[in-house]
Design goal:
Elements lengths: L8 H15 L3 E2 H12 L3 H13 L4 E5 L2 E5 L2 H37 L6 H26 L5 H23 L2
Antiparallel strand pairs: 1-3, 2-3
Helix pairs in contact: 1-2, 1-3, 2-3
C-alpha cells in the first residue's frame, strides 16, 4: 500500500480558486462539491470549508439569492486586488522612508556638539565623578537621618500621642 500525502489547506485554496478563474462562471456549493474532487483533487468534505475561507479572505464573492448561495470570482478582480495591495504597500514604504529620513536628521542634529574630543571626555569624567560623590553624600545623609531634628520632633509627637492613649485606656481600669 502506498501512503498518499495529504494536500495542504493553502494548496486546496489555490486549487479551488483556479476552478473559479478557469471556468469564469457562477457556482452553487453543490456544483463546487462535484467539481472540486473531479478536477482539482480536493475532497468533497473540504470544499465547503475551503470556499468559505476564500470568501472570508475576499478572494471569492458570495451572494444569497432566494434559498441558494452563489459563489464567483473572476481573474480581473484578483488583478485589481493585487494592484490595490501593491499601491498600499508602496505607500507604506514611502512613509517608512520619510520616517527614516526624519530620524536620520534628528540623529545628525543630536550628534552635533557631541563629537569625541578631549574636552568632552574630561567633562564626562567629571560628570561621573560628581554623580558618584552625590550618591555617597546621599548615603551618608541616609545614615544620619535618625539625628535629624525634624524626624526627632515627629517621633516626640508620636510618643506623646501614644502616651495620652495609654493614659486614657488605663485610667478607666
Amino acid at each position: 500500500m502506498s501512503k498518499r500525502k495529504g494536500v495542504s489547506a493553502e494548496e486546496k485554496r489555490q486549487r479551488m480558486l483556479q476552478v473559479f478563474y478557469e471556468k469564469k462562471d457562477v457556482f452553487q456549493l453543490k456544483d463546487l462539491e462535484k467539481i472540486g474532487p473531479k478536477e482539482k483533487g480536493v475532497i468533497a468534505q473540504a470544499v465547503k470549508d475551503v470556499v468559505q475561507s476564500l470568501v472570508d479572505d475576499g478572494l471569492v464573492d458570495s451572494e444569497k439569492i432566494g434559498t441558494s448561495v452563489y459563489f464567483w470570482s473572476f481573474p480581473s478582480k484578483a488583478v485589481s486586488t493585487r494592484k490595490r495591495k501593491i499601491d498600499e504597500l508602496k505607500t507604506k514604504v514611502e512613509e517608512a522612508q520619510k520616517k527614516l529620513k526624519f530620524f536620520e536628521n534628528q540623529l545628525a542634529k543630536a550628534q552635533v556638539g557631541r563629537e569625541d574630543s578631549s574636552e568632552r571626555e574630561e567633562l564626562m569624567t567629571k560628570l561621573s565623578e560628581l554623580e558618584r560623590d552625590r550618591d555617597e553624600v546621599a548615603a551618608e545623609l541616609e545614615k544620619h537621618k535618625d539625628c535629624d531634628p525634624e524626624v526627632l520632633e515627629e517621633v516626640k509627637k508620636q510618643t506623646l500621642v501614644a502616651k495620652e492613649a495609654v493614659n486614657r485606656w488605663t485610667a478607666k481600669l
